[in-house]
Design brief:
Blueprint: H1 2-16, H2 22-34, E1 49-53, E2 57-58, H3 66-83, E3 86-88, H4 91-100, E4 108-110, H5 111-120, E5 125-134, E6 137-146, E7 151-160, H6 163-167, H7 170-183, E8 187-197, H8 207-223, E9 227-233, E10 238-245, H9 249-257, E11 262-266, E12 281-284, E13 296-299, E14 304-305, E15 309-317, E16 323-329, H10 331-342, E17 349-353, E18 356-359, E19 371-374, H11 380-392, E20 397-406
Parallel strand pairs: 1-3, 1-5, 2-5
Antiparallel strand pairs: 4-15, 5-6, 6-7, 8-10, 8-20, 9-10, 11-14, 11-17, 12-13, 15-16, 16-19, 17-18
């Protein structure tokens, strides 16, 4: 009993110190798993995180994996409870809300919709998973979504030759998930930047630019799951932000300083017998990826830009793990996009990000409804950053990081 008590003290010390080191977090998780204790013995009231574990979905044709999928779901839920660090959303409540929202957690998952469902469940995190295979090969994909930010913070695949071998990997799934949950505890930081107008580096921001900058900073932090306490901007351009954040402070600082410029441009072709670009078109390179492609000719001026976007979210194929960014245009953008696709059927439309072509699909028909999907050389982190930047809007200033202070 003494050993367990000592372990409790060690766990409590780790938690109250706001552990961020990956090694220390893993040590903490292994201690929690080895010595389960009543939550009140370690964590203060209100510190428990609420987790919803959804039923693991079967990918492809049914191959006798339904029972295994249920076992993985149950085992993962039991291990989460055993940790003493989380409290679980009742399974009946999860099923009811998923049914009401008509949300199927297989195929392409819209993280914003899962986040909305998680809020209805009063959950801090939602765990989803899939199972595929048969005979001598089984594969399970596990995702952990942070409800506040709508971000998938854990995405791993586990493979095995037999059902029993795969089921034995569930504790490793639980350890990886708990590591992320513990690391996501809010911490207060003060971030300091120097803001300068883009068009005149030594000038000062106008009142409108100052208001826009403060608004964009707030949106970026809150959309990433943080809570802004104060934002001050003095006449000299010193921007000070005090916020409780659940992401890495340096990563967030980078997000606050960067813009993503999204454009849609029609593709052109040289006239027959000629090699030079037609008037009004310029060569533009593809974004680097596995496939090397020559530059493509696109219109010099964009037909549609990110300023015409009303919303953007990340969707993840729960079977392949490939992320895409789903966008919704505002009223003006919806009209332009509809006319652009109507008048250019069978032509290519280049999707350009920061001066590089992501893809140039052929327009098959007029696209109404004001929605589009962007795929390309995306990591999950890159897709998340792009969606955040598109939702927040273009920065009116260049920002230079002066300091990061932990409260």
């Amino acid at each position: 009993m003494k050993a367990v008590s000592d372990t409790n003290d060690l766990i409590a010390a780790f938690v109250t110190d706001g552990v961020r080191s990956k090694l220390l977090i893993r040590m903490l998780v292994l201690l929690i798993m080895a010595f389960p204790v009543p939550p009140a013995a370690v964590f203060a009231a209100g510190d428990l995180r609420t987790v919803a574990v959804t039923d693991f979905e079967i990918a492809g044709e049914e191959t006798g994996g339904k029972l295994l999928a249920r076992k993985i779901t149950d085992s993962l839920t039991n291990l989460m409870v055993k940790s003493g660090y989380v409290q679980m959303v009742e399974r009946s409540k999860i099923h009811r809300i998923l049914d009401e929202q008509k949300l199927i957690l297989s195929g392409l998952i819209d993280t914003s919709r899962v986040s909305s469902a998680g809020k209805l469940m009063a959950a801090d995190f939602v765990i989803t998973g899939t199972l595929a295979g048969g005979e001598n090969e089984w594969l399970s994909n596990v995702r952990l979504l942070e409800v506040a930010s709508g971000k998938i913070i854990y995405a791993e695949s586990f493979g095995a030759k037999t059902k029993s071998d795969l089921n034995r990997q569930v504790p490793e799934m639980a350890v990886g998930i708990l590591e992320k949950i513990i690391a996501s505890r809010p911490e207060e930081y003060v971030l300091t930047f120097l803001a300068r107008p883009k068009e005149k580096r030594d000038g000062r921001l106008s009142t409108q630019q100052q208001d826009t900058l403060r608004s964009i900073m707030r949106r970026k932090i809150e959309n990433s799951g943080g809570l802004v306490k104060t934002i001050t901007l003095d006449p000299a351009g010193k921007l000070v932000i005090d916020a409780a954040i659940i992401t890495d402070a340096l990563w967030l600082s980078g997000l606050l300083m960067t813009d993503d410029v999204l454009e849609f441009r029609l593709v052109g072709y040289p006239e027959e017998g000629k090699t030079e670009a037609p008037e009004g078109f310029i060569p533009m390179k593809y974004r680097e990826g596995e496939e090397k492609r020559p530059p493509i000719l696109v219109k010099k001026e964009a037909d549609l830009t990110g300023s015409d976007i009303e919303n953007a979210s990340v969707a993840l194929d729960n079977f392949t793990g490939q992320p895409v960014v789903q966008i919704e245009f505002n009223r003006k953008g919806t009209k332009i996009f509809s006319e652009l696709t109507r008048d250019n059927v069978r032509n290519q439309l280049a999707i350009v990000l920061n001066g590089e072509v992501l893809s140039a699909p052929v327009i098959q028909e007029e696209i109404r409804g004001g929605q589009a999907m962007i795929s390309g050389v995306f990591t999950l982190e890159g897709a998340y950053r792009l969606a955040l930047n598109l939702r927040a809007g273009r920065l009116p200033a260049n920002l230079e990081l002066l300091g990061i202070e932990k409260r």
